[in-house]
Amino acid sequence: MQTYRYEVFTSVIESKIKKGILRPGSRLPSVREIKNNYHLSTSSVQSGYDYLVIKGLVKNIPRSGYFVASDRKQNITKPLLNEYTAKNEVFSRNVTLISPRNRPSEYTSFNSATPTDLLIPQNLILKKMQEVIREKGASLLRYYPVNGSWELRNQIADRASQYGCMLNPEELIITDGALQALYIALASVTNPGDLIAVESPCVFSVLEVISNLRLKTIEIFVHNENGFDAAYLKKVCSDHPIKALVVTPNFHNPTGILMSDDTKKELLSIAVEHQFPIIENDIYGDLYFGNERPSNIRNFDEDGWVMTFSSFSKTLAPGIRLGWLHAGKYTAETERLKFALGRSVAPIYQELLIRLLEDRSYDKHLRSFRKQLKKQAKEVLEALRQYFPDRSYFQTPDGGYSIWGSLPEQVDMKSFYTYCENQRILFTPGDIFTFTDKFHHYFRIVFAEHINSNSFQSLENAGTKAKDLL
């Protein structure tokens, strides 16, 4: 079973709390004390305390330290089950929060995880589309195969094999974006009222798909160190009939965390043991900041338990509505659902992607795109750590678009967001990433827009306001 460095002290604190040795309100050792006593890094100690706070065992009081929580409703041994019914006004608010295109251009947007116009390879895309139109002509106006172009599916499978992910083209379905792929995957293996496990925090659009399918969820904490609390999932599966796990192992949105290979293998082992599929979101897998593309959970799957999906809207342009789903042993069910949702994805998009993949211009674009994103992530992180209060926390992303941050509990978040709105600065509140109330003092910062001097000034203004609110 996977262990974490910080467990050497968190397990001691948990045990003492459960045995009543540490009473509600008791002060806990400082980060410095834990660091010295257990020979851990500051980040490991902070991760451990964050873990205890998320589980409801510990409370962080700004400028005072960590204390045993007085009200521990969320016991670590009892997962919180959520049955969520979407409300129109909540849905509309959340769509607005993640859609800067609904706002005037003078807003400084840190809230939409799509590439800005300045980062989209417009010339490349338009040139290839013109070539496709000239060569294919009226054939682009006809239906394509329900599962998508055979040539495109082969191209996707060939490219995935280069990083060890073996996809069978016959088990691939071309979809109208990643959300349709997720919907098809979930609907093919669940019924309304079924219980699934999801990562926490979890991106809003995924939660809406779950809500529309009327599923119940157990939210499982995303770990700073290795990407997922596999031990907690294992316990949950022993106590509850989990029908599926939805997870983003590579550059999770909103935290930007990369799941370790050991954790990926452990999740697969748990899924096989308890006979449920893993629905793997790999939409950010190509946006890595390291030296090589990370593996998927699918890399380690020999029996078809993993359903992997992705799209090209995050890496090329948001208007290119083309995704894919590799359904493994669930291919027959997903094919029927795809047929019911519409015959085929726009042929021009399929032919465009065939061109971009076969001549490697997609990979050439990715190299420069990743370089720019990595540079912007570093600059934004430095600004956040410089301008925001000392007790704030910002997760360093391993790839993708997002930085996950939190402000001290003393900060009035409503006042903070009101100020940012008035100053035309857009962040995404943490409440949007959960069915619970665990992330009230968290927020997501997206660095997919072109970062300039106005961006840094906006971050400085927001950070100054956060300090004032202390």
Question: Can you describe this structure?
Answer:
- The strands form 4 sheets. An 8-stranded mixed beta sheet has the order 3-7-6-8-9-10-11-5, with helices on both faces. It has a 4-stranded antiparallel beta sheet with strand order 12-13-16-15, with helices on one face.
- Helix 10 links the parallel strand 8 and strand 9.
- The chain is 41% helix and 14% strand.
- About 3% of the residues have low confidence.
- The protein is built from 15 helices and 16 strands.
- With 470 residues, it is α/β, with parallel strands linked by helices.
Distance between the termini: 41 Å
- Fraction of residues in H or I helices: 40-55%
Strand content: 5-15%
| Radius of gyration (Å) | 23 Å
Unreliably modeled segments: 72-80, 83-89
Count of helical segments? 15
Instruction: Give the averaged pLDDT, no decimals.
Output: 87
